[in-house]
Amino acid sequence: MAELTAFTDLVDYPMYVVTAAANGERAGCLVGFASQCSIDPPRYAVWLSRANRTYRVARHATHLGVHLLAKEHAEVARLFGSETGDSIDKFRHVAWHPRHGDTPVLREACAWFVGRVGGHIDGGDHVGFLLDPVEASPPAPGRPPLVMFRDVVHLSPGHPA
Questions:
Q1: Does the keyword Oxidoreductase apply (predicted)?
Q2: Domain coverage including residue 92
């Protein structure tokens, strides 16, 4: 198997907080593997680690929330990236409101959308969730600097390795 580190170490990309609700549970985590994957129809794919509690909730969810954070809200990224929902209720520490499918939407996000889960893709230790957007935030004023991979690379994941 080819080693990708020489390639991936050069890439910087935005980080997302992905949220889900199903069966009376809420979950959310910090995600780096995500991308628009279709223009028409508009679709997005987010990849969740099988080791993550958010994956366990999301696989039963009808919708997922995908959030971008401005650098000024890096603490929210730390919360969703370094803590596990197995130990704490992350949503007690942030302002949020329910949207489609009771999906939690974070008020501190500079942009967000809620997507209906249209399918799953087995990617190995991560599972891709294909999302059909059904609702989105209004445009953010200007282009705020976003929380990027380089801003969170030092975080230890909240879920077990």
A1: yes
A2: 14-152
CB environment 41-67: b (16+ within 10 A), e (fewer)? eebbbbbbbeebbbbbbbeebebbbbb
Concatenating the DSSP letter of every residue in 55-112 gives HHHHTT-SEEEEEE-BGGGHHHHHHHHHS-TTT--GGGGS-EEE-GGG-EEETT-SEE
Q: What is the CATH number of the domain that holds 42?
A: 2.30.110.10
Single out the residue of 152, 151, 8 nearest to residue 81, CA to CA: 152
Q: How far apart are CA 73 and CA 56, in angstroms?
A: 26
The amino acid that residue 58 corresponds to is A
Please check whether residue 38 lies inside any domain of the structure: yes
Does residue 8 sit within a domain?
no
Residues in the chain: 161
Q: Is residue 144 part of a domain?
A: yes
User: Do you find a cis peptide bond into 41, omega within 30 degrees of 0?
Assistant: yes
Residue 32 lies in a domain: yes
Task: Specify the DSSP class assigned to residue 6.
Answer: H
- Per run of 10 residues, the mean pLDDT along the chain (length 161 residues) is 80 95 96 96 97 96 98 95 87 96 96 98 96 94 91 76 54
- At 3, give phi and psi (nearest 5°): -85, 125
